[in-house]
Amino acid sequence: MARDTSHINKTNDNDADNRVVIFDTTLRDGEQSPGASMTLSEKLQIAEILDGMGVDVIEAGFPIASNGDFEAVSEIAKITENAVVCGLARSGPMDIDRAGEALAEAKRFRIHTFISTSPVHMKFKLQMEPEEVLEAVTSSVTRARGFTEDVEWSAEDATRTENDFLCRCVEAAIKAGATTINIPDTVGYTVPEEYYALISMLRERVPDADEVVFSTHCHNDLGMAVANSLAGVRAGARQVECTINGMGERAGNAALEEIVMALDTRSDALPFTTGIDTTRLMPASKLVSAVTAFPVQYNKAIVGANAFAHESGIHQDGMLKHNQTYEIMTPESVGLKESSLVMGKHSGRHAFREKLKDLGYELGDNAFQDAFQRFKDLADKKKHVFDEDIEALVDDEIASGSDRIKLVALTVIAGTEGPQKATVTMEVDGAAHCKEASGDGPVDATFNAIRAIVPHDARLPLYQVSAVTEGTDAQAEVMVRLEENGKMVTGKSADTDTLVASARAYIGALNKLLVKREKTAPGSMLAS
Ligand code: KIV
Ligand code: ZN
Q: Which has the closest alpha carbon to 3: 152, 182, 113, 211?
C-alpha cells in the first residue's frame, strides 16, 4: 500500500530546504483541551478549512480512542483533497491497525505512532524497561510501514529524555522506516536554547538523520511553545506541529497562526516558508472558537480582537500618518476585514449570500435559508447589524444544524419581585413539549425548565455572557459548558435577548451531550 510522500519529505531538495511542513493537530491534541470536544460535523468543517488554507498534514484524531474518533478520522480521510491525513496510534499493534483502517480511503495518509522515552514516563506510566521501549519503537514503526510509506514516530516527553537513549530510539525508528521524527516537548518544559541544542544534537549524532524530517511539537505550559518551535526550525526541524488558537492539552500547543505569521513577517530573521494562505487564519480561528466555545483571548497575537486595535491617542495619530508606525503586518494579511455595516432589513438574499462569502462562509441551502431568516429577524430588532452580528448568527446556525432538541419559545418573568419564572417550549425529535419552572434568577429558571423537559444530571461548569458589538442593543453571546460523567460539551449562541441566547446555548450543549450519550447508551437521555 505504498503512498507517494515525496512532497512531504523533501529536506534534500535545494528549493525545498527552507519549506516548513505545517502539521495541524487541532482535531487531535486540540480536542484534548478539557471541554473542547467536537461533533463529527464540526470536525469535518474544521478539516475542510484546514485543507483549504494549505495545511500540509491534518492530524484528524486517535482512531483507537473511541468509535467517534475512528469515524471522524475515516470521514476526514474521505473528504480531504490536498493535505495528508494523519491518525495517531500508540505502539501496540491494535492501535496501529485501527489507524490504518480508519485512514484507508484517504488520498494520502500518515500513521503517527508514539511511545514515551523519558525515565519518569517509562518507569511510572509505561512500567517498561528502556530495552522494551526500544523494541516497541522498532515493532510499531515496522507495523505502520505495512500500511504506508509515510510514518511519523514521536518520542513522548522527549525533552526530559536522556540524550543517549533518545538517540538510540530515533536511530531505531529511522532504521524501521519512519520518515518523520517528532521531538515533543510534551510537558512544555524546555526553553528555546535547549530545544535548539536538542534538535541539533539529534541531527548530528543519529545515523541517517538527514534522510528524515525532524518535527517540533511544543506545549505551552511556560508560554514558550511558539518560541521553542521556531528554535527547532532554526536548528533544522522542517515540520511544526501546531493548532489553531493554540488549542491543546493543558495550556495548549504552539499556535498555528503565530508560527505562520512569525515566519511570514520576519522572513529576514527566519528565512523559512509555509504553504499557508495567511488570509484564512482569521476565519479558521473564528470557526474553531465557535465550535469549541473556547473564546479567543482579546490580546491574543494575530487573531485576538485587539491584535490590530490602536487605543492610545499617540498610536492612533501615528497610524493615521503611516500604518507602519505601529503595525508590523496588515489586518488584511491575516484575513481581518474592516468591520462594516451590513445591509439593513431590506437587504435581499443575494446581498446576504455575498456578505457570507465575504466573511468566509459557504452554507448549504437549508442552513442558508435559516440564517437569512434569522438575519431578517435580527435586522427587525437591531438598528445596526455588523459583520460580527452576522458571524455570530451563522456560527449559531452551523452549530445547531442537525440538532434533535430545538428551542421553540421562551417567556420569562424576571425583576426584583421573585420568584423568577420561565416557560419553555421545545421540540424534541419533532414533538413539542412545554414546561414552567422557577429558579434563583431568570437564567436558573430557564435552565430548570429545560431540565424539566430533558432530564439530566450534567453539571454546568461554565456560563459566560459577552456582547458581540457595542451598544445596549448589542447581541449577547452566551457560552455554556456541561459536564456529565467526565464528558464535557459546549454550546454557544447569540441573540439580542440574553435569556434566549442562554437557552439556545444550553440546548446546544445538551444536543452535543445527547450525541455523546447515544454513542455509549443509545436512547438514554430522551427516554428518561
Ligand atoms: O504532547 C505529546 O507528546 C503528544 C504526542 C502524542 C505527540 O501529543
Ligand atoms: Zn501533545
A: 152
